[in-house]
Amino acid sequence: MTMIEDEDETQNGPSNLRASRKSRDPNFSNEEKDVLILLITEKHNNGDVVNGNPTPLAWIEITKTYNSQVGTKKIVQQLKNAWKTLKKEYRKYHELIGRSGWG
């Protein structure tokens, strides 16, 4: 291996790979979570939620409305992940409230 080949390998190594990855979106703010909860609640009231989760078509509609209200460009999967996280957090709090000495 020559010096030039060695330099090329260094430039295309893991450090450049990290730099080319998409940066992480910021966490959802409380206001953004509130908007998501309200939109899903509306879909639930319309019968577009099955087993606690909106239907695939409902997710598309939720995403469009969410992005227009909040002014972001989230995709369906990001909102699904946020909903899943919110449900987990709710279950934890609900469990703690049921314990003796927690409320």
Report on this model:
The protein is mainly α and 103 residues long. The chain has a domain at 28-98: Arc Repressor Mutant, subunit A. Helices cover 68% and strands 4% of the residues. It has helices spanning 3-11, 14-20, 30-45, 56-70, 76-98, and strands at residues 49-50, 53-54. The protein has a two-stranded antiparallel sheet. A hairpin with a 2-residue loop joins strand 1 (49-50) and strand 2. Helix 3 (30-45) runs antiparallel to helix 4 (56-70). The model has no long low-confidence stretch (mean pLDDT 84).
Give Rg in angstroms.
21 Å
Distance between the termini: 69 Å
In sequence order, what are the helices and strands, one letter per element?
A: HHHEEHH
Total strand segments: 2
Structure classification: mainly alpha
Give the % helix: 55-70%
CATH topology of the domain at 28-98: Arc Repressor Mutant, subunit A
Helix count?
A: 5
Major sheet attributes:
2 strands, antiparallel
How much is the average pLDDT? 84
Runs with pLDDT <50, length 5+? none
Percent of sequence in beta strands:
under 5%
Give the overall silhouette.
Answer: globular
- CATH 2nd-level architecture of the domain at 28-98: Orthogonal Bundle
Biased composition (Acidic residues): 1-10
Protein name: Myb/SANT-like DNA-binding domain-containing protein
Pfam families: Myb_DNA-bind_4
Region (Disordered): 1-28
